[in-house]
Structures are given as C-alpha cells and as structure tokens.
Write a structure and sequence with these properties.
Elements lengths: L1 H6 L3 H134 L4 H18 L1
Helix pairs in contact: 2-3
C-alpha cells in the first residue's frame, strides 16, 4: 500500500500547496513583476522621449534645410539680378565711352579742319602778298622801260616762274 500512498492526494497538503502557490505568485508579482514592470515602463517612457526628440530634431533639420534651400534660391536670384545690373551698367558705360570718344574725334577733326583752313588762308594770303609784290615789281619794270612784245613775254614767264616757286 505504500505505492498507493505516493499517488494519493492528501487534501490538507493539496490545500497547503495551492495556498503556497498563491502566496508565491503574490510575492513574485509584488516584488518581482511590479519592479520589472516599472523598469520597463520607465524604459518605454525614455524610448518615447528619445523618439520625440528625434522627431523634433528631424523636423528642425527639415525646417533648417527648407530655409537653407530658400536662402540659396534667394541668393541665386540676387546674384542673377546683380549680374544683370552689372551687365547693364557695363553696356551703359561702354556706350557713354563710345559717345565721348566719337565726340572727342569729332572735336579733333573739326579743330584739324579749322587748322587746315587757317593754314590754307594764311598760305593764300602769303601767295597774294607775294603775287602783289611780284606785280609791283613787274609794274615798276614796265614803267621803267618800254616793253616790247618779247620782253613782255619774258616778264610774264618770269612772273609765272616766281609764282610757281612761291607756291
């Protein structure tokens, strides 16, 4: 019968084992699961906080990237406007320099033409004075002598030769 005693259930022992199981479950829950659950909850909160920080950092980075791209577009637009203005100013300056050069050339040409006219007038006046002097000389010679046709021709040839030499 001893083998039956090993297999039989003793009610008080069974009740004690069940009570022991419930007490162990309560103690494990109270002193083991509760702290572990609190640690897991804290880790979950910390993870959530880090995820929120990462999202915030990503949003700020996205915002900064958007602002950067906007400022780059603005800078490129401003650079384009500056280049256009510089080209326009350069064209305007080139045109004004060209106009000034043309005016300067025109003034030089007018002055040169005026100088040529004055020099021509002076030369004509000198030639007239020379011709007048020659005419006086011829008239003086004519008055001094009676001119024959051969002498007259010689005087005219002499006069023409002197005019050619003077010019």
């Amino acid at each position: 019968m001893e083998s039956q005693a090993l297999v039989t259930i003793i009610p008080w022992t069974f009740i004690a084992m069940i009570l022991n199981l419930f007490i162990q479950m309560y103690l494990i829950k109270r002193f083991l699961f509760k702290p572990v659950h609190e640690i897991l909850a804290k880790r979950q909160e910390k993870t959530d906080a880090e995820l929120n920080q990462a999202r915030n950092a990503r949003e700020e980075a996205e915002k900064a990237r958007t602002e950067y791209e906007s400022s780059i577009r603005d800078a490129r637009g401003e650079a384009g406007r500056i280049l256009e203005k510089a080209e326009k100013d350069a064209k305007t300056r080139a045109e004004s320099i060209t106009v000034e050069a043309q005016q300067y050339v025109a003034a030089l040409r007018a002055k040169a033409e005026e100088d040529v006219r004055a020099e021509r007038q002076r030369a004509l006046n000198e030639v007239k004075d020379e011709i007048g002097g020659l005419a006086m000389d011829i008239a003086g010679k004519v008055v001094e002598k009676e001119i024959h046709e051969a002498e007259h021709k010689a005087l005219i040839d002499d006069f023409l030769r002197r005019v050619e030499e003077a010019s």
